[in-house]
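User: Reviewer 2 asked us to show a designed sequence for the structure in our supplementary figure. I'm pasting the structure tokens here. Could you produce the per-position amino acids so we can include them in the response letter?
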């Protein structure tokens, strides 16, 4: 089963977050992830609005979680901490 990595983000430090995004993109690509949505227009219907929303497709939940726990992604994440408020989840897709 495939998986989606979904994050909702409010960026508070553009410069630091840009470093995160560059490194995170490399980690995601290294784990077979492909971006479906990255920023862009959205309509908030319920819950807390975050101006940046990202969706990445992975081959499966395990690979998405392996990406998150990878050394490269954790290095990227060090730039996002303190530079953003965010939620991140992985959900299995329906095939």
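Assistant: Here is a per-position design you can include in the supplement:
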């Amino acid at each position: 089963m495939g998986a989606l990595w979904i994050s909702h983000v409010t960026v508070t430090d553009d410069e630091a977050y840009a470093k995160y995004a560059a490194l995170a993109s490399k980690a995601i690509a290294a784990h077979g992830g492909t971006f479906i949505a990255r920023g862009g227009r959205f309509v908030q219907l319920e819950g807390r609005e975050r101006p940046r929303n990202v969706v990445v497709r992975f081959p499966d939940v395990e690979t998405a979680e392996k990406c998150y726990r990878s050394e490269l992604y954790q290095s990227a994440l060090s730039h996002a901490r303190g530079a953003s408020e965010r939620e991140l989840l992985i959900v299995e897709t329906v095939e």
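For the response letter, you might also mention the following. The mean pLDDT is 96. The chain has three helices and four strands.
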